[in-house]
Amino acid sequence: MGLKEWTLFLGKTVKQLVHRYPNIKILEIMAGTSGATKVIMNEISCSFASYTYTNISLGFFETAQQVFNAFSSKIIFQLLDYEKDIDEQGYKQYSYNMVVALLVLHATINLRRTLRNGRRLLKPKLFLVMQEITNNDA
């Protein structure tokens, strides 16, 4: 499977969870050029409470706001450096039902701290939906 197929699989996974929990609050870590976000939005349409589109830089937000204009009442564009403390960045602990991360966690300096921050964003016993590259030869 290539990246396109894995991204489609991620979108279908999110769709299943949104179908089960229609008032879900979603946060996407490092949405970047919106590749995964586009697939997810095609799958879930407006069947969610809110979608927080994050990035470490404001540079991606203007284009993303245009692309996702149809979801403007439900999508939030917000800075997030997932390696830094979430409280200091204005995020409330345990406030999301789902955190989505596509090929971003491997780029962190301290994976343990990054995963801990992601966990602190999630309500207890809810969903981290992620995809990462692995080395099968290791």
Question: Can you walk me through this structure?
Answer:
With 138 residues, this protein is α/β, with parallel strands linked by helices. It has a single domain, classed as Rossmann fold. Helices cover 33% and strands 24% of the residues. The chain has a 5-stranded parallel sheet. Strand 1, helix 2 (35-44) and strand 2 form a beta-alpha-beta unit. Helix 1 (3-20) crosses helix 2 (35-44). The longest helix is centred in the N-terminal third of the chain and has 18 residues, at 3-20. The two termini are 20 Å apart. The relative contact order is 0.18.
Question: What is the structure about, briefly put?
Answer:
It contains 4 helices and 5 strands; from the N terminus they run αβαβαββαβ.
